[in-house]
Design goal:
Shape: globular
Number of strands: 23
Distance between the termini: 33 Å
Oligomer: single chain
Structural class: mainly beta
Strand order of the largest sheet: 7-6-5-4-3-11-10-9-8
Strand content: 35-45%
Number of helices: 4
Radius of gyration: 22 Å
Length: 382
């Protein structure tokens, strides 16, 4: 039985910040940040990724998994671009291929170039991608949040609506839809590599994990051929276990005797789930802007695990805590992890740190015991 990695502290390592040519984003990109999009303009499952090393070096990647129905092999094209950081436009100064290239890849390479240029130009001409803008929408549906505008985009068939959001790195593009509101292009995940040897960007292969048709996954990584979305949970939870209240900083929560403390403000449930309470680093930002920044960072993929944005939910609790619900794909053992994060939004001192709670459990355990877990999570308040 494997421990669930508590990786969230790695998200706040000090890194350099900069931007693409021609515009200054609300949050500057940080070294190693990346974004992957699901691209529906292809007739097969396809992803397009952009990663920034610094203001002069970017990595672009196209990936498509094996397609059984169309009998198409796995496809990958990765290239490194150098640009002039002093230019006000995308001025390409060099290119190097990181995967083996054939003549059949020419169309994809040109497409990646076109997207890099087009996205940059359109972002340069879009000035309202800021939470301070009156046109910046905030709703309960994260996919509709941000700033949107109508444009003509030949690569996507003509008239489209582009949604921008400061939560998405690089171009801030969240999704593109046509005039029938059909999604043509949308963010699949964002993330950050933590070192030159980090393969999180280049190892991304979507969220099906390469499983054969009819196979599913479980929390230990084995495959199972049935119609269930996840395997059956073996987690045993004692009913009517004695409860106790805990408080740390502004955070209060209630746990029962099923949970065992492993460190200060950290509890485990049979090595299948954990809850930890901590504080987030201080910032010179106002609390409101810092919460935007934290949301952007806390939904990012790291260490070869991937946050599935199709299942992302951002909301607030009755007591005012910021709540982030994510499902994280772990390719190494072919399983999903459900994670819920809570940030205290109350602070009398703008320069003070914010309290933070993270809950994580294997998806099959969470699904089988959702009523129990949801009841527990509702006790978290400020």
């Amino acid at each position: 039985m494997k421990k669930i990695a508590a990786f969230f502290t790695l998200l706040f390592l000090a890194v350099s910040a900069f931007a693409l040519p021609g515009f200054i984003p609300f949050f500057q990109d940080e070294s190693g940040e990346f974004v992957y999009y699901r691209d529906y303009s292809f007739n097969r499952e396809s992803y397009v990724g952009f990663l920034t090393y610094d203001d002069a070096t970017y990595e672009l990647r196209y990936y498509a998994p094996f397609d059984k129905e169309l009998n198409l092999p796995e496809k990958e094209v990765t290239l490194l671009l150098s640009v002039n950081p002093a230019s006000d436009f995308m001025d390409l100064t060099g290119e190097r291929f990181l995967t083996n290239i054939t003549s059949e890849d020419t169309e994809i390479i040109n497409y990646l170039h076109d997207l890099m240029y087009e996205f940059n130009i359109r972002r340069c001409n879009t000035l309202d991608v800021t939470p301070y803008s009156n046109d910046y929408v905030t709703t309960k549906n994260w996919w509709d949040n941000g700033y949107s505008c109508y444009e003509d985009f030949s690569q996507f068939g003509g008239d489209v609506k582009i949604y921008y959001d400061v939560m998405v790195p690089l171009f801030n593009i969240k999704k593109i839809v046509n005039n029938r509101n059909e999604v043509l292009f949308k963010v699949a995940t964002t993330g950050r590599i933590l070192s030159a040897n980090d393969t999180t960007f280049t190892s991304f292969r979507g969220f099906n994990g390469g499983l054969a048709e009819g196979q599913t996954i479980n929390s230990e990584g084995s495959k199972k051929s049935d119609n269930k979305s996840v395997s059956e949970s073996t987690l045993k939870i004692k009913k009517n276990a004695k409860k106790a209240d805990y408080k740390s900083g502004n955070i209060s929560l209630t746990l029962d005797a099923n949970w065992e403390a492993s460190a200060e403000n950290m509890w485990w449930l049979s090595d299948r789930a954990y809850i930890a309470v901590s504080t987030l680093p201080k910032s010179s930002m106002t609390t409101a802007i810092y919460l935007f920044y934290l949301n952007r960072r806390l939904i990012q993929s790291t260490q070869n695990t991937y946050v599935d944005f199709s299942k992302l939910e951002l909301s607030s609790t009755d007591s005012g805590l910021v709540k982030i619900h994510t499902v994280i794909w772990q390719p190494e053992n072919k399983t999903n992890m459900v994670s819920e994060k809570f940030i205290s939004s109350s602070s009398s001192d703008e320069s003070s740190s914010l309290d933070y709670v993270v809950f994580s459990a294997w998806e099959n355990d969470y699904t089988a015991n959702q009523k129990y877990f949801d009841s527990l999570l509702k006790t978290i308040s400020q």
